Amino acid sequence: MSKPSKLLASGAIALGLASAALPANAEPIRNVVLVHGAFADGSGWKPVYDRLIKKGFKVSIVQQPETSLEGDVAATRRVIDMQDGPVVLVGHSWGGQVITDAGADPKVKALVYLAALMPDVGESTETLETKPEFPPPNNDVKATADGFFYMDPAKFHENFAADSSKELAAFMAASQVLLAEKAFKTPATAAPWKTKPTYAVVAGADKTINPDLERWMYKRAGAHVTEVPGSSHTVFFSHPDIVVSVIEKAAAQ
Question: Is the pLDDT of residue 91 over 70?
Answer without folding.
Answer: yes
